[in-house]
Amino acid sequence: MKTPEKGEVTTPNSNHDLRGFVKLFIAKRLIGGSAAAILGIFVPIFLYETVGQQFHIVGIYYAIMAFLYLIFIIPGMHIANRIGFSHTLVLAGVLNVAIFVIMYHLTPENLTILLAPLALLIAGFRVFHWVPFHVDFTLFTNTGERGRLVGLSFATIAFLGVIGPILAGFIIANAGYQTLFAIAIALIVASTIAYIFVPETDTKFTWSAKETWSQLFSKKHRGIVVGEFANGAEIMVNVIIWPIFLFEILNGDVFEIGAVSTTVVAFTIVLQLLLGKKLDQTKNAKEKTLKVGSWLYALGWILKMFVFSAAHVFFVGLYHNIVKIFTKTPFSAIVYDMASEQGEFVDEFSVVREMAGQAGRATCLLIASALSFFIPIGWTFLIAVFASIALNFVYRMKMTS
């Protein structure tokens, strides 16, 4: 692939038009996002209930999946070379359907039989989904508009998050998890079909396993590795530990969990869109916003340690969602800008950031699982406090590169 000038990317046949982005957006954010919105906080809760409400089992299980990702990512990218990165998203969709077919049938009785294939499928889905998605997003957008499009993507997630949690809570309370998973399977099938129409990119992963691991630990990539490691750790607290914490303090009332989550998200959508546009218009806005936002976001995790009721969840959650916008939007925009500057190595760069993120996930969950024997899981939010602040390492790399 031709190497573009710094800060510039090439798209397959479109000279920077947004047709590829629109198709990717429809498949991932609209259709796939609808499935994610109803599954979101309830998949960890479902597994937590299925294993007898033993947090350490859930934590170790997700950590194992992260390690499997690290093992499979490099051979997975060579498979992607053969079928095309955009077409690999279709394969990931098929694996995602299989994941929720297994979850549909998962019970405490067949747990020991189905957990292993489920872990392999989830790891495979992540391998074939996230790097191709990040590469396509980078190649289908331009540096001057990326903050706005990241903001649009996050706002779409937030919009779907207004409807998804309360709807999912209602479905589970009245019809059970199987009905929820059946609806999710239909949405994932539709998303997989939509990925067929995403244009293929002229992308090849060229590094060997030795070169990839060498680059992961190189000084050149230290900033992005530390930043993504921290991001992966914080994500695990947010999407695994926090839902289980909610389940415990709200006494297992899944409808209340969904209703509170919906109400919190509804207040943040417009702000998300406005910030994304502002980040593109103001010089160094991404870096400055991340620096302030990460500290405010870390404070939110401290406040969440002292949540004891639905009212607390709402007010602290509202604050945390607002400051999250000022953290994750600039962080993602910075990372995509950095990826676009890699030229023909955008896919290799994306693999490095994904490996760092998965390492952060595994480390976070192993630490949290060990700590859960000695302290309430709410105190493991301290991991997210330090991880939120560590996101700024990616900013330091950006400024010095």
Q: What structural class do the secondary elements suggest?
A: mainly alpha
Tell me roughly what share of residues is in helical segments.
over 70%
Number of helices: 16
Biggest sheet overview:
none
Strand content: under 5%
Low-confidence stretches: 1-16
Given the C-alpha coordinates, what overall shape results?
globular
Using only C-alpha atoms, the radius of gyration works out to 20 Å
Distance between the termini: 23 Å
Average the pLDDT over all residues and give the rounded result: 85
Q: What are the secondary-structure elements, in order, as H or E? A: HHHHHHHHHHHHHHHH
How many beta-strand elements?
A: 0
Structure write-up:
- With 401 residues, the chain is an all-alpha fold.
- The protein contains 16 helices and no strands.
- Helix 1 packs parallel to helix 6 (146-175), helix 2 (42-50) crosses helix 9 (222-249) and helix 3 (55-83) packs across helix 5 (111-139).
- It is globular and about 50 Å long.
- The model is unreliable at 1-16 (pLDDT under 50).
Helix and strand arrangement:
Elements (H helix, E strand, L loop, with lengths): L18 H21 L2 H9 L4 H29 L1 H21 L5 H29 L6 H30 L1 H19 L13 H8 L5 H28 L4 H13 L2 H13 L3 H20 L5 H31 L5 H26 L9 H10 L1 H9 L1
Helix pairs in contact: 1-6, 1-7, 2-9, 3-4, 3-5, 3-14, 4-5, 4-7, 5-13, 5-14, 6-7, 6-10, 6-11, 6-13, 8-14, 9-14, 9-15, 9-16, 10-13, 11-13, 12-13, 12-15, 12-16, 13-16
